[in-house]
Design goal:
The chain is α+β, with helices and mostly antiparallel strands. Helix content is 27%, strand content 23%. It has a 6-stranded antiparallel β-sheet. Strand 5 and strand 6 (105-120) form a beta hairpin. The longest helix is centred in the last third of the chain and has 20 residues, at 197-216. The relative contact order is 0.13.
Length: 283
């Protein structure tokens, strides 16, 4: 699934590619996705978007927004965003397709838990909150702010819960989370409130460093950009690293199940912190 690094890269690409382009065709939910929200009336999409011109594209954490005057299209949990320069080269599967006056097109494939909506901006803001919270790549995201956010999210039990479910910043999914925790030397099931100061500093630095590296390298090598090209960041923890030697210690990477998903971890480098004394369980 596309996460914050890829969405930032794609937003930059789309702002270079489709700004001021006129929408002359709209196809909604050609590939049926019963679980994705707000597919109720495809005619409404056509009425609102036809003959509109794209003003700008914005990344709001896990949301990608395309603005056309007062109307906005928002997409959450996109699996694929594809830009084609030939009107005859249209992906066979998509939940939204925008055709432009110059015969180029833009299509979206959305996950079963994703979201697609099109409405006036003020109405969308009432429908769903898609503010990205604090920009975790900015100077405002300091270590002091990070500690404040930790105290605000005590409902998050583990470090993985915190990255995926906190209400202060958005856009980190399971894929990015695994590399952040690997660089932070934390097991996904480590208890958040039991981290000591050294753990928290390393955790904070890992969030900043890992995301910046992913963006600088034009996204992860497990995902593709709008042209179908894979990113240049070599993902450290993913299916392809399973049973491969850890970059740091040489112990084979293993796979564990946690909160309904699979995580890839180094059981030697990534500490499992489970009590207040910060004792580390090594497997």
């Amino acid at each position: 699934m596309l996460e914050l690094p890829e969405l930032i890269i794609m937003t930059r690409q789309l702002n270079d590619l489709i700004i001021n382009k006129k929408i002359v065709g709209v196809v909604v939910n050609q590939t049926k996705n019963k679980l994705a929200l707000d597919f109720d009336d495809s005619k409404e999409y056509m009425t609102k978007l036809l003959n509109e011109s794209v003003k700008k594209c914005v990344c709001y954490g896990s949301f990608l927004a395309i603005e056309t005057g007062n109307v906005e299209v928002i997409i959450r949990e996109a699996l694929e965003v594809s830009y084609r320069t030939d009107k005859y080269l249209i992906p066979p599967k998509h939940q939204l397709l925008l055709k432009f006056h110059d015969h180029t097109n833009l299509s979206f494939v959305i996950s079963d838990t994703g979201f697609l909506a099109c409405a006036k901006r003020k109405d969308l803001r009432k429908l769903v909150k898609y503010d990205c919270g604090i920009d975790i790549l900015s100077k405002e995201f300091t270590y002091s702010e990070f500690k404040r956010i930790l105290t605000m999210n005590k409902n998050c039990i583990t470090v993985k819960d915190f990255l995926l479910e906190n209400k202060s910043f958005f856009g980190i999914g399971t894929g990015v989370c695994q590399d952040v925790l690997y660089n932070a030397q934390l097991h996904p099931e480590s208890i958040l409130e039991y981290l000591n100061e050294d753990n928290r500093v390393l955790f904070f630095n890992s969030i900043k460093f890992t995301l910046k590296q992913m963006i600088d390298e034009q996204g992860r090598d497990t995902e593709v950009n709008v042209f179908g090209e894979r990113g240049g960041y070599p993902t450290l923890m993913s299916e392809k690293s399973f049973r491969q030697p850890c970059y740091h210690c040489g112990v084979p990477i293993t796979k564990i199940s946690h909160v309904g998903s699979e995580d890839y971890v180094c059981l030697y480098c990534q500490k499992l912190i489970v009590d207040k004394k910060n004792k580390v369980k090594i497997f």
